[in-house]
Amino acid sequence: MGLKYPDPPHESVRELLRGLREIAGLALLEDTHKKTLQRAFTSEKPFSRPHQIFFLRVDEFTETRSLKAARLVGWRYFITDQSTGETTVAEVNFDSISARHSFGTFCRRFCEPSILIFLNAESNANFAASNFEVCLLRVPGLHFSALWLKSELEADSFIAITSTVEQAGEMVQLTVGQLIDKLIAATKREPIRPDTTSS
Fold first, then answer.
1. Dist CA 54 CA 36 (whole Å)
2. Domain coverage including residue 167
């Protein structure tokens, strides 16, 4: 039991490895990232913790007060340097219309809070006996992301991704209703960013 990470499609993994190999050869890539990728490729499985990425438009939850319209737009992977423990994040986009997977992003600097929240959730005693599948929810219009713990046996749970590593230790759990209330409240405080996603 505990948190589960689903098996990604072979096409997504193949595109992930292709993109990482291409990035590893870039002259402008920081040396630390190059070394992380080079050492990752020495292992049989250079990635861990694969999880799905879901997008939700603002109008989709304000009208229905549910997450039913959340759509799969990609897969996210952790790339860990086994010698240093340093973790970076890579994403592979998924177009549901063409069923095509394409390499998206590779970063660490702005992903540290989300990495920490995922790792903290894994070690949280509250989830030790759970049956949650790990996902990532994004609401681009509000620049909001959350760790989404999905389950068919119990109510889903959410942990908002904070903007700083210092805040990541707070680990405030939200129910679906609390999450939607939080998002609706945010629409009244912040200007809505245009949804430019096509997946």
1. 27
2. 10-189
